[in-house]
């Protein structure tokens, strides 16, 4: 079997290889423009060789991945950060990078990452294409708003109504300003039908995906956000808990702590930037619709900052969507069995789920928010252990000033 470490660049790749059957090893530099790299791999296929290729996650390698899939070769994609951490020498060259990748493959220490399917990637292109066109439309409308405001017209969203559009077109402008207005309006008229067509394509894809329809039952979550979440997360079983989801999309703070000092910085912004943007936008929509979310957002905004509050609500939304996806719940089931499960109708403590622990049956009481007079929050939780011997005996809930009954 041929094991090949590839240091990939858009125009060239440096490889280090070894044949585990014959012991043959070496290194080469293959160009992409004259198809030298393609000829090399097709030559291995013609010889009937089994090949495993390892490379860092990078861009502009779509053709290379398709080529290896066509030839039936294994392609392992590695985490660049973990590969960099395994580099010991201070020298860094393409040759040394390829040798390091080959060494990690041979020693079974290659930090392989999950790779989405070709269909998944193609649907992501639909979302990215629509997102970029919407950004272009936003820039155009902002410029037209500036043209109108410079002439004393400030109509905000009403500028895009029929009377507003007619007023904008009738403004007396200098020659080049009028040319700018005309070109921008033409671009806007060309973008709107295209964006509507792409939005219809997204809605068509959503109809065939029940997991996306379940996420859309959550207030503020539309087809774009739900489809993006499902495509980028792919399988909820990849993550053990909601904290890992928040870390995966880059909604947790960076940390540089040592000894007794803990220092938190800005959010990491690692992961998919499109999903992070959509979660922040959707979270603000939830805040406008849900009174409880609005209360939490207002509290955070007053205590910290609006930007921090927006990110915090986006993180909360990401965790909620993760559990809806993992448990296959809709929004009503999430409210019934989720974070508030076990609470009574009057907001007090109710019985949660029973978890066996040896000879005892432990009853977990769902956490309840307690609001103090100062506006702060604390958590109260209780646990009752009752004897379990084939059937559950009735047990009373202790008073708040008494210790739990063991």
SSE blueprint:
Elements: E1 2-8, E2 12-19, E3 25-31, H1 36-46, E4 51-56, H2 62-71, E5 74-78, H3 80-85, H4 94-106, H5 118-150, H6 162-169, H7 175-207, H8 210-215, H9 223-233, H10 242-248, E6 253-255, E7 264-267, H11 273-289, H12 291-303, H13 306-327, H14 331-337, E8 351-357, E9 360-365, E10 368-371, E11 377-380, E12 383-387
Parallel strand pairs: 1-4, 4-5
Antiparallel strand pairs: 1-2, 2-3, 6-7, 8-9, 9-12, 10-11
Main beta-sheet strand count, sense and barrel state: 5 strands, mixed
SSE order in H/E notation? EEEHEHEHHHHHHHHEEHHHHEEEEE
- The number of distinct helices, counting runs of at least 4 residues, comes to 14
Percent helix range? 40-55%
Keywords:
406 residues; alpha+beta; globular; three-stranded antiparallel β-sheet; 49% helix; five-stranded mixed β-sheet
Explain this structure:
By secondary structure, the chain is an alpha+beta fold. The protein has four domains: 2-106, MutS, connector domain (Nucleotidyltransferase, domain 5, 2-Layer Sandwich); 118-208; 217-337, no CATH class; 342-406, no CATH class. Helices cover 49% and strands 16% of the residues. The chain has 14 helices and twelve strands. The chain has helices spanning 36-46, 62-71, 80-85, 94-106, 118-150, 162-169, 175-207, 210-215, 223-233, 242-248, 273-289, 291-303, 306-327, 331-337; strands spanning 2-8, 12-19, 25-31, 51-56, 74-78, 253-255, 264-267, 351-357, 360-365, 368-371, 377-380, 383-387. The strands form four sheets. A five-stranded mixed β-sheet has the order 3-2-1-4-5. A hairpin with a 5-residue loop joins strand 10 (368-371) and strand 11 (377-380). Helix 1 (36-46) packs parallel to helix 2, helix 5 (118-150) packs antiparallel against helix 7 and helix 12 packs antiparallel against helix 13 (306-327). The longest helix is centred in the N-terminal third of the chain and has 33 residues, at 118-150. The chain is globular, with a radius of gyration of 29 Å.
